[in-house]
Amino acid sequence: MKRLYLLRHAEARPASRGSSDFARTLTDRGRKTAALVAYYLRDQDYRPDMVLCSNAKRAEETWAVIAPALQPYEDSVERLIESLEVQYLKSLYLATPETMIMLMRTLPETTNSLLIVGHNPGIQSLAITLAGSGEAVADAPLYRDFPPTALAVLNLEITTWAALEEGCGRLLEVAIPDRG
């Protein structure tokens, strides 16, 4: 079994005139909700073996807020980032579920848990695609709303990433930080 954490980046500023969507940065509220998710991940002992992060500025900043909270020891953040494989990928910028599935199928089999920091609608659609069906999924907020900094946690009923396919997962929870 594999574990998958799907995180939509935190709230970002609107693109300013003359700047690109890709360069948008987090708002103060976005930093706050990213910190809430970071501590939630830590408190639930949700610790990925690997992180795949869109290289859009808002996704990178979201991961930068989260990384220190996942640090297991009183040690430097730099050591955590060195010990945890983090890849910043342009291919995750506004990626489709199909693109992300193809990417995950190439992961090393030693990776048992993966965090993807990405964008909507792809992250939400990927969670729905992998979650399969059933009452728990149908009632999940995943179908209604997946705001910035929403987190979907899935167990994948696979032993190899190459076996990843639609419906192979079980949605454990959707966590949405306080929007206040």
TrEMBL record:
Keywords of the record: Hydrolase
InterPro entries linked to this entry: His_Pase_superF_clade-1 (IPR013078), His_PPase_superfam (IPR029033)
SUPFAM superfamilies per record: Phosphoglycerate mutase-like
Enzyme class: hydrolase
GO molecular function: hydrolase activity
Pfam annotation, one family: His_Phos_1
Keyword Hydrolase: yes
EC number of this enzyme: 3.1.3.-
Protein name in the entry: Phosphohistidine phosphatase
Organism of derivation: Limibacillus halophilus
